[in-house]
Amino acid sequence: ARRVKLGLLINKIATDSEITAEKDLVDAKLNEMSLQYGESAQQMIDWYNTDPSRLANIESIVVEDLVAKHVAEKAKVTTMDKTFLEIMNTQN
Q1: In the chain, how many H helices and how many E strands?
Q2: Residues with pLDDT less than 50, the chain
Q3: Is 84 inside any structural domain?
Q4: Contacting residues for 63 by C-beta, under 8 A, at least 6 apart
């Protein structure tokens, strides 16, 4: 349930802020991920690019990253001095 709520929230922010997974960002993410495949890197990239549902997974990762950056840029940070117990008691 938590994952579903988080996904809905990310989609809402992405839609409202017109955040999309541009092809160059998806390609960059694929290239980054392919580095761990060594000589098989191009095969890994081709494997994702040949199936729209697999590519959609990468697009989702890119959108999540962009939404996180967007929220961090817009967030207002307030510093408060609290003890560990004060913080833990407010979460009940």
Answers
A1: 5, 0
A2: none
A3: no
A4: 10, 14, 19, 20, 21
